[in-house]
């Protein structure tokens, strides 16, 4: 199969040149990494599930007016996206204490936070994506003040929308990470949501049992990683009940 020019290879995705100007093809790999790639594995079917889940979330967010890079899904592992200049920040929104916040501040995992908390990390693998403040961001011009306003407002809207969406299917949205990019169109520049939204980038717990349905299953060696991801896809109505146990690579409609 002839391949388009590769633009960038990340830990879980590859970006290829798109068919039209200002577009890219985002390919979802089965590779899983954690702790800044110290831990690695290949999880059969993870890329297929994340492609579908991210398509679903971006489409729904677009439907409520949250601008994002998603154009259309091309096949099982690829989606057509708008080309953006990535803002070098990871925006983390937390509703419940978990992960690095629990470690850093000594707050027990599972503690409901008094309000949604937005954190920023610098996207820099060599430094381990350190937490940074808005002071750092302004001083080093990683994002402009008006972009920061937009990033925070959009992230909180995403949180409100996704918290409700997941609650409706029995899932607690504990926290998640977003990335944004600058999209250039007709001499205009605006900030849009980019990257992916999937169980790789969100903490998702069953509302009743607190069972983890996200990448913590991989990080913490709990097993059943792709089974948990397909459970999320099933609850969202992306895959049917009967397909859950099936090889996810065979998800029907994947070639649509
Ligand atoms: O590890 P930490 O607790 O800071 O992660 C917060 C949230 O951000 C989690 O949902 C995690 O999956 C996500 N995250 C991510 N990519 C990173 C760091 C965190 O998707 N590089």
Could you characterize the architecture of this molecule?
The protein has two domains: 6-84 and 232-248, Phosphorylase Kinase, domain 1 (2-Layer Sandwich), CATH 3.30.200; 85-206, D-amino Acid Aminotransferase, Chain A, domain 1. Helix content is 27%, strand content 32%. The chain is built from six helices and 14 strands. It has helices at residues 46-63, 99-105, 134-139, 145-167, 216-219, 225-235, and strands spanning 6-9, 13-17, 23-28, 31-34, 39-42, 70-73, 78-82, 85-86, 89-96, 112-122, 131-132, 171-185, 188-194, 202-206. The strands form three sheets. Strands 8, 9, 10, 11, 12, 13 and 14 form a seven-stranded antiparallel sheet that branches. A five-stranded antiparallel sheet has the order 1-2-3-7-6. Strands 4-5 form a two-stranded antiparallel sheet. 37% of the residues are buried. The site of cytidine-5'-monophosphate has 14 residues, from strand 9, helix 2, strand 12 and strand 14.
